UniProtKB/TrEMBL annotation:
Protein's UniProt name: Alanine dehydrogenase
Family: Belongs to the AlaDH/PNT family.
Native source organism of the sequence: Vreelandella lutescens
EC number(s) reported in the record: 1.4.1.1
Span of domain Alanine dehydrogenase/pyridine nucleotide transhydrogenase N-terminal: 4-137
Domain of life: Bacteria
Keyword list, A-Z: NAD, Oxidoreductase
Length: 371
């Protein structure tokens, strides 16, 4: 199969959809891999690394797209990329269509087959191609929050591990899913006093068992949130309610109960955020202060650590890329009930129900297309 890897063009996107390691796997199976000049640079991969893996480097972006059957990307296609798509293309990337009406329409009009990373499932009920980026964001949350606690950043001047004779700082994580657990692990590793709040008893049981009391678990209630704002030096927002807007769990009025210079890290900002005073920020200016509380609300946290993020993401995508290349999209999806929900748009039709419902469109069952 002819596979193309364009350079990402979304602002501040440094990741790449295929590493030289992945290119070697594909070329070793007889596939043709064409990588746009400089596509891997932001993640630390040079054109020569891809050439050593058997790929060709294509400086001409028109030729890259025109000659491809399978296109591998990271971010949703930008308007100039949508314009390049044809019915002959299979696109495999993050799409997040339910929030993007014009992108959905553009992909339908292109006639292409569009498979989204984020709607692929696994046997444990998880989202295996979202999890690596949640892991990155969770781990980064505490790193960013610890930096924000420094005086020069407007923080309270607390060092999370404390020092001998001085108690450690206190970190509360709201939402103990993939992001929350990874944030808590990092905070624990730094020596902070760590508490996780969650609404799911089953999840709290898993965390309690895994960390044997080293991370405190608390059922998430209004009382628990009141206690958290009064005591925590850092609160990480990591709540997700699938298919619903994130609830505003900490209101502006509650900030008055927090210690001045405490830090709110709202990782859930990409879904609207779980603090009333959160608004999306960028890596160029990641924090702002409201009522003396430092807010860190970067919507694409993994972008700052593009090398690790690329490696984590491509480890997770590679088995699916190999299946697409070896079998073609129809058989690859038909053979794998967890891969099948990845199909979002095919030949002008929406094939993922939640996306169709979001825009009042007809939805076609993907199983009826691949059989
Ligand atoms: N900013 C970024 O760069 C970035 C990167 C990755 C993920 N995220 C976001 O982080 C958020 C969390 O993602 P995840 O992968 O950890 O999700 P997840 O589904 O693994 O975990 C969410 C957890 O929130 C819990 N929860 C729901 N309502 C709650 C409440 N009222 N109080 C406490 N806990 C509650 C759930 O029980 C679940 O355990 C999502 O909004 C995701 O989009 C952001």
């Amino acid at each position: 199969m002819k596979i193309a890897v364009p350079k990402e063009i979304k602002n501040h996107e440094y990741r790449v959809a295929l590493t030289p390691t992945g290119a070697r796997e594909l070329t070793g199976r007889g596939h043709t891999v064409s990588v746009q000049t400089g596509a891997g640079e932001g993640a630390g991969f040079q054109d020569g690394d891809y050439q050593l893996a058997g790929a060709t480097i294509e400086p001409n972006v028109d030729a890259l797209w025109q000659n491809a059957e399978l296109i591998l990307k990271v971010k949703e296609p930008q308007p100039e990329e949508v314009a390049r798509l044809t019915p002959e293309h299979t696109l495999f990337t993050y799409l997040h269509l339910a929030a993007e009406k014009s992108l959905t329409q553009g992909l339908m009009e292109s006639g292409a087959t569009c498979i989204a990373y984020e709607t692929i499932t696994d046997a444990k009920g998880g989202l295996p191609l979202l999890a690596p980026m949640s892991t990155v964001a969770g781990r980064m949350a505490v790193q960013a929050g610890a930096h924000s606690l420094e005086k020069a950043q407007g923080g309270s001047g607390v060092l999370l591990p404390g020092v001998p004779g001085v108690a450690p700082g206190s970190v509360t994580v709201i939402g103990g899913g993939v992001v929350g657990e990874n944030a808590a692990r990092m905070a624990l590793g730094l020596g902070a006093d760590v508490t996780i709040l969650d609404k799911s008893i089953a999840r709290l049981e898993v965390l309690d068992d895994r960390y044997q009391g080293r991370i405190k678990t608390v059922y998430s209630t209004a009382d628990a949130l009141d206690h958290a704002v009064r005591t925590a030096d850092m609160i990480v927002g990591a709540v997700l309610i699938p298919g619903a807007a994130t609830p505003k769990l900490i209101t502006r009025a509650m900030l008055a109960d927090m210690k001045q210079g405490s830090v709110l890290v709202d990782v859930a900002i990409d879904q609207g955020g779980c603090f009333e005073t959160s608004k999306p920020t960028t890596h160029a200016e990641p924090t702002y202060i409201v009522d003396g509380i430092v807010h860190y609300c970067v919507a694409n946290m993994p972008g700052a650590v593009a090398r690790t993020s690329t490696l984590g993401l491509t480890n997770a995508t590679l088995p699916f890329v190999l299946a697409l290349a070896d079998k073609g999209w129809q058989k690859a999806l038909a053979d794998d009930a967890h891969f099948l929900p990845g199909l979002n748009v095919h030949s002008g039709k929406v094939t993922y129900r939640a996306v169709a419902e979001a825009f009042g469109l007809e939805s076609v069952d993907p199983a009826s297309i691949v059989k």
